[in-house]
From TrEMBL:
Response regulatory domain sequence ranges: 14-126
Coiled coil: none
Statement: the UniProt record of this protein carries the keyword Transcription regulation: yes
NCBIfam families assigned to the protein according to its UniProt record, in alphabetical order: PRK13435.1-4
SUPFAM superfamilies, alphabetized: CheY-like
Listed InterPro entries: Bact_response_regulator (IPR050595), CheY-like_superfamily (IPR011006), Sig_transdc_resp-reg_receiver (IPR001789)
Gene Ontology biological-process annotations: phosphorelay signal transduction system
Keyword Phosphoprotein in annotation: yes
Protein name, entry field: Response regulator
Domain of life: Bacteria
Modified residues (4-aspartylphosphate): D64
Database matches in Pfam families: Response_reg
Amino acid sequence: MRRRHGLSSEKRLRVLLVEDEILIALELESLLQDLGHDVVGIASSSKDALALGQEAKPDLAFVDIHLADGPTGVDVARQLTAQHQVTVLFMTANAKRIPEDFGGAWGVIAKPYTERGVREALAYVTAGQPREPQNERTVTFLPFGATHRERSPKVS
């Protein structure tokens, strides 16, 4: 069940992984399953991600910024959010690739990610943090999951 803002913390989340490095995807899949969530698919390209988004109806997607078919993760995030109301968390080793508007994502997990960082990200999205369309707050979970910082895009 979705809350007004965010995802319900009372159920197993249906998670889509959009990651072209299979070892990273499998490791994250294992971690999410250990945390009690269902991984409904792994996509390595934007085409596969959008198809799985439609078929599997995920609650949450972890989306790598740079996929096998190029830097298309931001486009995937925007489409998953707009077309299927999927909550998105970006994963990237290069935060400079994240657009100012965050492409509709709720946060960014720095790679290499840690279990603590993933746990904090899941806690953040399931807590139902408010999102205002004109002043969206997005959280970056830093390496090692020790702290996070908030970044607000410029509002014109």
